[in-house]
């Protein structure tokens, strides 16, 4: 798979500190030219992925080639400031990129989106500007892809003092992208040592001794997402591996609405991709139903009605997603000035998107078969890939609890406890 050469960041002279005293690294909003520039790059990536997306899904192989494609395109460095060697783009642009790629391959869009969010932990949890800048600069220099082993429903990891460092043991399930990433980020409560009792966030190179990829991902969807588990067996973690400490600050907790906003955009991208592929199939579908009174299925009023309904609902989700993608840039720009009320506001707004993007994405990816016919269920066609992907990933965390979250706040002003899911 090849695309045009990567776009190089602007020359800005020697690298300088980018994370300000307020703790943020992202300021302002994307302009139309930035979004257009990187959406074009994403379209090139999506076109390259489309060539063999069905075969890669069927093989359940590790997505090594797609990850190289993401590096070569410049997308993995999209959100690193230009003065630190990155592309200096905004979150609105990043979410648009993820949505574009998800229209073709949601697995790869997920790996890329998680890479940005895990990389961003250097800012959200960073102990100081110098440390955060160092992580971002090294990441851009090496074009690192980041993954995580944070899954909060897995047992906690053991993180025990050993000399000047710590020894890490345990396992985490559903570590999306970890088998193909450069860096795996995780966290654990320190037992003993200088960080005793603190929730330490650290980043480890994937090849570190004692880290083992379990290769146990064999689900009906997201098959190319490398979402198997990871085990840690006496892994040595030094102070240099520490990204920061989770001190339950509102700014640090803004990362979770970012994760949920990524999901909403990917679900929307899946719906858009399913509609685009279904429209192509419907236009090529020969003959017509004998009661329709027309010669082609593409002229059948029933076909028009189904597409009209699905396209309209998808457009409504798109409008909400676009609005929230811009708002997220405003939210992260607050840095350490973020209040609990600020964090709750973006959390609740994104929860509403999660509800409707899940519902519409599942409906669209399922109902497109009504207008493409039995022939579209052939394995080689790959129309089912959209439904299998969203059906698998939409179970990440129960959408019913998002409905409850939104309803409880609407009625009683209740805000759910901060977590890695809310």
Automatic annotation (TrEMBL):
Domain named Acyl-CoA dehydrogenase/oxidase N-terminal: which ranges?
A: 40-142
Q: Where is the Acyl-CoA dehydrogenase C-terminal domain?
A: 262-397
Q: Which UniProt keywords apply?
A: Flavoprotein, FMN, Monooxygenase, Nucleotide-binding, Oxidoreductase
TM ranges are none
Give the metabolic or biological pathway. Sulfur metabolism; dibenzothiophene degradation
Reply yes or no: does the keyword Nucleotide-binding apply.
Answer: yes
Please state every residue range assigned to the domain named Acyl-CoA oxidase/dehydrogenase middle. Answer: 160-235
Q: Does tRNA processing count among this protein's keywords?
A: no
What is one cellular component GO term in this UniProt entry?
cytoplasm
State where the protein is found.
Answer: Cytoplasm
PANTHER family referenced in this protein's UniProt entry, alphabetically = ACYL-COA DEHYDROGENASE, ISOVALERYL-COA DEHYDROGENASE, MITOCHONDRIAL-RELATED
Q: What is this protein called?
A: Dibenzothiophene monooxygenase
Q: Which organism is it from?
A: Agromyces protaetiae
């Amino acid at each position: 798979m090849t695309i045009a050469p990567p776009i190089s960041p602007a020359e800005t002279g020697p690298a300088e500190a980018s994370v300000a005293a307020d703790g943020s690294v992202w300021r302002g909003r994307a302009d139309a030219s930035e979004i257009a520039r990187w959406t074009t790059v994403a379209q090139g990536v999506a076109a390259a992925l489309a060539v063999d997306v069905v075969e890669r899904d069927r093989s359940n192989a590790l997505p090594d080639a797609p990850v190289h494609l993401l590096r070569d395109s410049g997308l993995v460095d999209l959100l690193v400031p230009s003065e630190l060697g990155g592309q200096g783009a905004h979150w609105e642009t990043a979410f648009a990129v993820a949505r574009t790629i998800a229209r073709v391959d949601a697995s790869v869009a997920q790996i890329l989106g998680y890479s940005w969010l895990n990389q961003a932990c250097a800012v959200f949890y960073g102990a100081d500007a110098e440390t955060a800048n160092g992580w971002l600069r090294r990441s851009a220099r090496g074009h690192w892809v980041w993954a995580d082993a944070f899954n909060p429903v897995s047992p906690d990891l053991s993180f025990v003092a050993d000399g000047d460092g710590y020894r890490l043991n345990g396992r985490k399930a559903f570590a999306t992208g970890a088998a193909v990433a450069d860096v795996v980020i995780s966290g654990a409560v320190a037992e003993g040592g200088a960080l005793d009792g603190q929730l330490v966030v650290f980043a480890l190179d994937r090849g570190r001794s004692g880290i083992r990829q379990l290769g146990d991902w064999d689900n009906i969807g997201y098959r190319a997402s490398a979402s198997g588990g990871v085990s840690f067996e006496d892994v040595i973690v030094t102070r240099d591996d520490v990204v920061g400490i989770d001190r339950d600050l509102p700014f640090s907790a803004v990362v979770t609405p970012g994760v949920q906003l990524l999901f909403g955009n990917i679900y929307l991208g899946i719906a858009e991709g399913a509609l685009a592929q279904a429209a192509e199939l419907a236009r090529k579908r020969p003959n017509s139903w004998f009661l329709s009174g027309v010669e082609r299925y593409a002229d059948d009023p029933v076909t028009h009605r189904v597409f009209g309904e699905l396209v309209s609902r998808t457009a409504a989700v798109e409008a909400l997603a676009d609005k929230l993608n811009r708002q997220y840039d405003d939210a992260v720009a607050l840095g350490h000035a973020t209040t609990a009320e600020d964090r709750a506001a973006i959390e609740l707004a994104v929860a509403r998107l999660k509800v409707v993007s899940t519902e519409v994405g599942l409906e669209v990816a399922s109902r497109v078969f009504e207008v493409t016919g039995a022939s579209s269920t052939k394995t080689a066609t790959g129309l089912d890939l959209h439904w299998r992907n969203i059906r698998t990933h939409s179970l990440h965390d129960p959408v019913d609890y998002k409905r409850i979250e939104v309803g409880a706040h609407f009625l009683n002003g209740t805000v759910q406890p901060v977590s890695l899911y809310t």
